[in-house]
Structure formats: C-alpha cells, structure tokens
Amino acid sequence: MAISAVDVRLCGHSRHREPFKQEYKNGLDTYIIRLQLEGTCQALVDGRMTDLMPGDLLLCKPGDPYELRIGAPGEARVKPSGDYFMMCAGAGMDEWWAEKERPTLRKIAEDERIKAAWHQLFLEKRRLDGGHPELISLIVRTLLLLLDRALEEAPPAQSAAAFHAIRMRNFVEENASKPLRLEEIAGHAGLSVSRAVHLFKAFFGMSAIQYVQQLRLAHAVNLLEHSVLSLEQIAYETGLGSYTYFHRVFRAAYGISPGVYRKRRTRDD
Description:
It contains ten helices and nine strands. The chain is of the alpha+beta class.
C-alpha cells in the first residue's frame, strides 16, 4: 500500500536553557507533535495554559491556536526543558488525524523505539538534499504508528504505577536478547526490586523474568523456522546463553527439543 506524502516543515530535538515563547494566535497552518523529554513547560490546551511534564505528548492540528512557554520573560536562565517536535502537513498527516479522535494532551510511557524513529527523522531531514521525500513519509508513518500504540497502551487513570510497569516492559522488550537482571529492570524505572517485582506481576500477570523468557523463546522459534543459524548460535542470539540451557527451557515450554522442532518444521514445509 502506498504511503501518502508527509511534508515535514521542521523537526528536531530542542533543549532550552533560556526563556522561550512560541505563539500562533490565529491558528496553526501545520500539525504539531511534541513530546516533553525533560524539565517542564506550559502549553495552551483546551483554552488554558497547562503544565507539561516529561512523557507528555502534545498533538495539535491546523487551525488550533497554539502557545508554548518555557520560563518567564526577563529570566536569564531557566531549568533545562527538552523535547522532540515535528511540524508537518500533507495528505499523510490528514489521513492519520482522521483515523480516530485524538487527545490534545496525553502522557505516554517512555519508549526508546519512539525516540529512535524521531532521531532517524532528524537525520534524514538534515541531509544537504533535504532527505528523500518517500523515506521521510515512511519514517513519519512509523513514528505515528508507534505514538498511536503508546497512546492506546497509556493507562486511563494515568497512574504513576502503571507508567512504571509499562516503562519496565518496554525496557525488557528492548533488551531481551542481552543479559538482564532484576536490578537493571527496576533501576530503569527508578524502583526498588521488590516494588518492581510487585508492579510487573500486577499489571502483566507474570514476572519480568518470565516475560524475558517468553520473548527469548519466541525469538528462538522464529530463528528455528526461518534461519540457518546453528542451535548454539540461536541460543546466543536470543540471550538464552548455552545450548544446554536453551535445550532445557525450550523442551519445558514446547514439549520437544529445538533440534526436533526444526526438523519437523523443515519436513512440514
């Protein structure tokens, strides 16, 4: 399916240490998507200036009045305020916006995949030729889909506990093929190990280590079915370590050894 064009007028990573103000009293002529990363600022939301905190995603459409303030006029310096932003237009944006009702402001959980897509967009736009238009539209579409998923998964109550749990799950998904300890998972969310263990189990119905194991085994099944890697290589690539351990946990999960599973799949194909 063809991706409708998106015209990215401006995008980047801003970090302000001095007072800053941006205002469109007569309404925007582009979409603005802005994710607060650090510090605080104020933005016009539903007719009133509202504090934005890290994780707050601001979505504005053409015609919306827009105002953003960081610090107060006359201040020499302010506490750093950082964000990712994108100002864009085009059929691709119109179609995305029309897909569903969208909140002006919503807090989402930290996700390195969102940051990576945004960073890739910066890099493409900064090329001397302005970047490949079709590639830019594809990157924007990827970013929008990731933001949609983050919005869908954002807890309705916007509770701190739920965001800690989602942040841990995202961290686990991003690092499942590496050695992972509970201390790392808990530390990423700024929690004690005991609190992290409780929250993860409460929100996802299993421990973080069980979730890691499920991700690794799912990856192993995919490699068994679609790669020519040796069983020892698959054990290493998935983070399961030695083949002996891989063999044991795979048999416990699926009832057969990895080697037999691969032979059956090959014969069935």
